[in-house]
Amino acid sequence: MLAVLVLTLIAVAFGLLLGFAAQRFRVEGDPIVDRIDAILPQTQCGQCSYPGCRPYAEAIASGEAEINQCPPGGQEGVEALADLLGREPLPLNEEHGEEKPKAVAVIREDICIGCTLCIQACPVDAILGAAKLMHTVIEAECTGCELCVEPCPVDCIDMLPVRETQETWTWPKPAGSGRVIPIIPARSSQ
Amino acid sequence: MTNPGDAQQALWQFPGGLHLADEKQLSSERPIARLATPARLVLPLRQHIGAANQPLVAVGERVLKGQQIASAEGYVSAPVHAPTSGTVAAIEEMPVAHPSQLPALCIVIDSDGAEEWIERHPLGEGYRDLAPLQLRNRLRERGIVGLGGATFPTAVKLQPGPGRRIDTLVINGAECEPYISCDQLLMRERAAQVLAGIAVIQHMISPAQTLIGVEDDKPDAIDALQRALAEAGLTETRVVAVPTRYPTGGEKQLIRVLTGQIVPSGGLPAEVGVLCQNVGTCAAIADAVYHDRPLISRIVTVTGRGVATPQNLEVPLGAPMAALIEHCGGYVDGVARLIMGGPMMGFALPSDQLPVTKGCNCLLASLAEELAPPRAEQPCIRCGACADACPAELLPQQLYWYARAGNLEQAREHHLFDCIDCGCCAYVCPSHIPLVQYYRHAKTAVAAAEREHEKSAVARQRHEFRQQRIERAEREKVERLAKKKAALEASKRAAKERAAAAAAAGEAPAEPAGDARQDAIQAAIERARKKKAAAAAAGVAAKNVDDLSEAQRARIAAVEARRARQREASGEAKDDASKGDDNGDTRRSAGS
Fold first, then answer.
1. What would the CATH number be for the domain defined by A31-96?
2. CB B274 within 8 A of CB B168
3. Which fold does the domain B13-363 belong to in CATH?
4. ipTM of the complex
5. Which residue on chain A is closest to B460 by alpha carbon?
6. Contact map slice: B 533-572 vs A, CB within 8 A
7. The whole model's pTM is what?
């Protein structure tokens, strides 16, 4: 009888403790969405069919979208997402576009008529200009999403590949011998 | 003859390292010769670690010797000066000595042979009246960078940070890499100048003691320094012979040998109260302070069995490497490779038509049998020789596996960035694995990933801000409309009440005017709706199209026609009516 009482008391105490903790340490938002969003390249191009990287991250988290719909993130991005979510990596879905080398938008300034359509299209406010005045792209802020190309009435926006400089160059990885001597010799299964 | 201070100095040891055949006698037996200024000098705008510079001169402009021709951008940076007087022939991208073999922006100066100096303000001994900040600024403006090879801006290094005291000034004359002898010759021939530079640094940071570390295979340099020291009368300054062992000349290694202090991982020597400067840098500091001579030349060791008379040359920056080789009697038959830097840390050059820069301490022309070409990589046999050789106490094998697998996070946690690229691990590897290449790849890959990450963080923030702005604009619009509507209703109610009151008073209602207004509004709404529908059918419509030239209008029409064709081709559902609308809209917008 005493044992039952003690156990009941313990159960109640822990229940209260858990209830308190659930209130006190409530996690705002969904941390998995943040972690998916951190992997996505933040191009905000909408090629995944969602209006930006965050909505796509939310769709992945809810299981609504597959992890292979982000062409700017490329196969590497798909693998990082698969790794995070413990899923099988899929090949990039070609319906959403193909992986391209990094590019930035450049406005041919002598042709620009100052229509502001590209400014409205830019998801990261990287185009500077005003009505009837020439526009220009802030190169450092451009994500290469290509959303400004289509609205331009005079086709004066080109996507130019990002040039490699001494600062951004990476040493090539050696080809390697292609072989690895395993630490533990492989044993035949018995 | 001997300085009382150098009697016996307790020394420490760093782990790992190698004994290498030093090969310095090849070039160290001849005195420093001066290379005549070539007709054309090519000066890369970035000759230091840090941000790239901007040119300050224009093509065709005449420049004087010592004139600043490129600005220093940012804090960690150093300007570039004209090494001779002449005319700026071009400012363009040209091949430079860099492992990437990517071109870089350079200023090309055609020398006029006059060597006409810009106005100078030498300080002489007067520098002692200046505050450290003023001297630092002078060194910064004169483009002084670390000449040991790292080319880190000296003015930045001489600022140990707030609240940090420098107890020990370490002067690096170790010059541990085989073949290179430019520091040895400098100490032998210009010891007084080196000490004058040391005195300037001492004045700036007032260290408790100064230790000049020189490897004991250079007795001539030690001797010359000690003789000059007796004359210069520097206090608490000692020349210390350190055992010859590669890489004693590494900053952290030399500090450890001389003081026993271990610079923490990822930290700076200033954290343990030490500042380290190369002897070549000290000489450049003396030049900048005493004679107001910016960094426009440096001593380059031209060596190797692939060159006829190996020797050290004082070379104006920007001189083509071919001119140095020619001055040294040209190549010997069978020369296989030209390397900038030493055999351990240098990199092979694709051509000798590249300019000498601030960081170019050695040109090594080697025969095929002298430096074996890289051998085919074999699998790692896990012998652990690399870990024994590593002077930075890292786990080269672990780093190799992580770099190979692209596991950058783990490589970083295993202190990848404490690796000093000395090459000891690759040298001892029995499987000829180019370990340093793997680490360099991993280091630059980490840096690239960080840049990407920062860029995406900025993009995320800007996108979120834009979303918020759009939402706010929408909300404000709705609120404004609601307010307007409320106001309208209130006025309507008031009008009705007035009408009722008037009717009650027996007057005739004045309604027709209101009806006409309602009709006009309806008509305007209808027009706007039609226009909107037309615009939606066209996909996009040009805006702000008034005051355009004929050519611009023609361009818009052409683009829209092309788009219309595209839409047709892509089979988007479009009935004839909407196409008619589309064309009408184009005409309207072009003609308005």
1. 1.10.15.40
2. yes
3. Rossmann fold (3.40.50)
4. 0.82
5. A42
6. 540-545, 547-548, 552, 555-556, 559-560
7. 0.81
